[in-house]
Structures are given as C-alpha cells and as structure tokens.
Amino acid sequence: METKNLENDFLELIAGQKRTIYKVCYVYAKDQDDLNDLFQEVVLNLWKGFPRYRGDSKLSTWVYRIAMNTCITFLRRSGTRPSTVPITADVAGSLIDEEGKTGQLRQLYRLINQLGKLERALILLWLEERSYQEMADILGLSRGNVAVKLTRVKEKLKKMSNS
After folding, report:
1. Enclosing domain of residue 23
2. What is the pTM of this model?
3. Of 16, 85, 95, 157, which is most buried with the most CB atoms under 10 A?
4. b/e per residue 58-94 (b: at least 16 CB within 10 A)
5. Cα separation of 119 and 103, whole Å?
6. CA separation, residue 30 to residues 3, 44, 83, 109 (Å)
7. Residue of 99, 123, 97 whose CA lies nearest to 110
C-alpha cells in the first residue's frame, strides 16, 4: 500500500473511531493527563499495527482490542487504579449524548471505575451496544462466558448504585 494512501486511510480510521478510543481510555484513565496519554498511546499502537491489519475481524473490533490492551498495559505499568476523570470539553464532545446527561454519565463512569479490568471492558462494550459475539472476539472469551459475566457485572453495578 502506498504511504500516502496508508496515512489517509489511517486518518479516516481515527476520525471514525475517535469516540470509541476516547471511551475506552476514559474508563481506564485516572486523570486528564492519563486520558491524553492513553489516547496518544492507543493511536500510536493502532498506527504500528495498521499496515498488518488483515481484515480477519471487523475494524471496530480490532480498534477496541488494541485500545483495551493498550490501556490495561498502561495500568499494569503504572500500578495504579483509575479514579474518575473530570469531563472536559474535548472529552465531553465524545462521551455526552445529545440530552447532555452529564450527572448520570459521571455517576455511571464513577461506578464503572470501581470494577475490575475485565468487568470494565465488558460493560463498556455492552454500553457500545456490541453483540455478545463481538465482545467474545475482542476479549478472547466464549460467547456463553460473556453472557454470564455481563449479567454478573450488571447486577454488581445495580447493587453499587443502590448503596
């Protein structure tokens, strides 16, 4: 593939997947600096892997997997658990729905940040309305395992929100 086409294709990929990348990074970041660092790290890893993307899975599945693996690796290296990142204008454009339910969104992400790595990944994929098969492909689990774990995570979040 020609370098100019590769760059243009990659820029189109990032433009189309920016919201997804921000959501994944947001869940794993402990502050705004982490969020920015994670986003850049994910984009860098996507760029490194882009020429080797063969299309064996959907592009969005491939992006999700790279983003999550990058964020989890970042967490392991830093050895810290994320807290809630304040929603700023640049992130808000990516994360807030049209009705602007920022309070509910903050509460949801505050609860999600208390979950384990796999639980966070599952609920994030579910919020993105991914199919169970897509979740299984991204996380390397069986479809049945995804269903069981997701049910448990939803129950856990429900209990946490009632406390």
Report:
1. 3-162
2. 0.64
3. 85
4. eebbbbbbbbbebbbebbeeeeeebebbebeeebeeb
5. 22
6. 36, 20, 5, 12
7. 123
CA 42 from centroid of its chain's CA atoms:
10
Smallest CA-to-CA distance from 120 within 74, 85, 86, 71 is with 71
CA–CA gap between residue 149 and residue 1 (Å, rounded): 41
Give the pair of three-digit tokens for residue 99. Answer: 């009705």
- According to the 3-state scheme, what is the secondary structure of 88-155? CHHHHHHHCCCCCCHHHHHHHHHHHCCCCHHHHHHHHHHHCCCCHHHHHHHHCCCHHHHHHHHHHHHH
How far apart are the two ends of the chain, measured CA to CA in Å? Answer: 54
Q: Which helix (H) or strand (E) holds 29?
A: none
Q: Quick one: tokens of 142?
A: 């069986």
Per-residue pLDDT tens listing for the chain (163 residues): 466 788 999 999 999 999 889 888 888 887 888 889 999 999 999 999 999 988 888 888 899 989 988 988 887 776 655 444 444 434 444 444 444 456 676 777 788 888 888 898 898 888 888 899 988 988 889 999 999 999 999 899 888 888 7
- For residue 87, the model assigns a pLDDT of 41
Please count the structural domains in the chain. 1
Total residues belonging to the chain = 163
